[in-house]
């Protein structure tokens, strides 16, 4: 069985998991019956629980689906504390459904798989020792990878039915009113966790900062919360964000960033009231800096910035260059603090951000997005999931979702070390080429031939050579030589959903 | 030709390769460490072996730690290590280049 991006899909899993192959980026107007959680009514007086052991005993049973958020990123203490208790309680056969898995969780997940505690995983991504473990076939059932918008869709559809959500927060009162902005380990927006709070049957908050009742502003509300557990520390503030934002000095990244900015400012979308999303990482931050200058020079203001927010973006909000920041997560402390003090920085949940089965998501209103790639192929298909050795080491994040923007730019170096970024066929298709418009490398740009309208606008920018993507692929190959094809077994270790819940690709076990 | 001394060339920086040559007894034996082993391991070994053959070094132990070097870099580091091992670094072997 092949899908519309020419990927061979495993027939047995497609049928046993009841999946359809990916067809198109068009969502259309399907009518959807959403699910609702089971609610155990109470007055709220008995939510405080003394220990994680007690709350696990009261809530988690064999075969359930449990969830976590990843807003603490590599400073997360909550995941490991809770999973330790669950493993030690001898609970088996759980489905782990976090918004994503960060490096600090890897060893615990590997242990939970080995113990039989976790037998299914759905996540935005995974890296490091866990990605390696799964890619070598050590989890019986395939991991299901979903974008942030798709996770929201899957939860609303009931494809992910969360029995218990364990949500770490830097503050909460005894009834469960909480936000991500005050306390020791603050991360700003609770965007991804808001889905769990709304749809899980049981919601457990863990906090190291019990506030007087009622605690406001309340992003998570007492109406959603079953239990509140006080723990000594929810996270390490030093490891949540990247700290002070450093601008890259790497000349290659700067060249790419400058070219990205040239593409944006020469596009028809660069006009007063436009909207944009950039990610984190050196090149993306540098783009923000160039874009700021161009907006000042041309007296252009943005109506909103979207997605994962960094301090350079909130600085532009303060400067009046951006009218609103729509914030699903904050990548550094500066951005998190800004959400606390500036009402123009709106916390949005993952559904509002990017859910395709919605009455209108923010990504549908987005003009320009800059995204990265581990690989991009001559069909403009992008891989952000598997590395050059075929091992899982990435995350979809909002990649598929934000790529629906009117101008989707992939910024990537032509080669990384000896590995070509522009290849004949990506190892794993995550985002279909149909939603990619321009590739920017340090050598020049390639425009998706489907975007004939952009060829006129971007074809004659001074200092920005235009290539076909095949030319860029050949240029990369001429530098690094021809790589020997990777070897995989027939066994599927992960399924990659497109944002509408169809299957865009499968990841196979690596052969070593 | 025989190796006179154990010799090293190259660094562990990104896009470089560090090559160490020492006396061997059984042909050219290469111990390679590389992040791109799967895709380029054979090619890296081929470049090292061919370059060593040009010095007529037939019995040599090679330890190579690759950080994503291109072929031209691998060749240059192998030449440097070979000439140091043969103590001929004062007389560049132009015919090898």
UniProtKB/TrEMBL annotation, chain A:
<dbReference type="InterPro" id="IPR006472">
    <property type="entry name" value="Citrate_lyase_asu"/>
</dbReference>
<dbReference type="Pfam" id="PF04223">
    <property type="entry name" value="CitF"/>
</dbReference>
<keyword id="KW-0808">Transferase</keyword>
<dbReference type="GO" id="GO:0008814">
    <property type="term" value="F:citrate CoA-transferase activity"/>
</dbReference>
<dbReference type="GO" id="GO:0006084">
    <property type="term" value="P:acetyl-CoA metabolic process"/>
</dbReference>
<dbReference type="GO" id="GO:0005737">
    <property type="term" value="C:cytoplasm"/>
</dbReference>
<dbReference type="GO" id="GO:0008815">
    <property type="term" value="F:citrate (pro-3S)-lyase activity"/>
</dbReference>
<dbReference type="GO" id="GO:0009346">
    <property type="term" value="C:ATP-independent citrate lyase complex"/>
</dbReference>
<keyword id="KW-0456">Lyase</keyword>
<protein>
    <recommendedName>
        <fullName>Citrate lyase alpha chain</fullName>
        <ecNumber>2.8.3.10</ecNumber>
        <ecNumber>4.1.3.6</ecNumber>
    </recommendedName>
</protein>
<keyword id="KW-0963">Cytoplasm</keyword>
<dbReference type="InterPro" id="IPR037171">
    <property type="entry name" value="NagB/RpiA_transferase-like"/>
</dbReference>
UniProtKB/TrEMBL annotation, chain B:
<dbReference type="InterPro" id="IPR023439">
    <property type="entry name" value="Mal_deCO2ase/Cit_lyase_ACP"/>
</dbReference>
<comment type="subunit">
    <text>Oligomer with a subunit composition of (alpha,beta,gamma)6.</text>
</comment>
<feature type="modified residue" description="O-(phosphoribosyl dephospho-coenzyme A)serine">
    <location>
        <position position="14"/>
    </location>
</feature>
<comment type="similarity">
    <text>Belongs to the CitD family.</text>
</comment>
<keyword id="KW-0597">Phosphoprotein</keyword>
<keyword id="KW-0456">Lyase</keyword>
<comment type="function">
    <text>Covalent carrier of the coenzyme of citrate lyase.</text>
</comment>
<dbReference type="GO" id="GO:0016829">
    <property type="term" value="F:lyase activity"/>
</dbReference>
<protein>
    <recommendedName>
        <fullName>Citrate lyase acyl carrier protein</fullName>
    </recommendedName>
</protein>
<dbReference type="InterPro" id="IPR006495">
    <property type="entry name" value="CitD"/>
</dbReference>
<dbReference type="GO" id="GO:0005737">
    <property type="term" value="C:cytoplasm"/>
</dbReference>
<keyword id="KW-0963">Cytoplasm</keyword>
<dbReference type="Pfam" id="PF06857">
    <property type="entry name" value="ACP"/>
</dbReference>
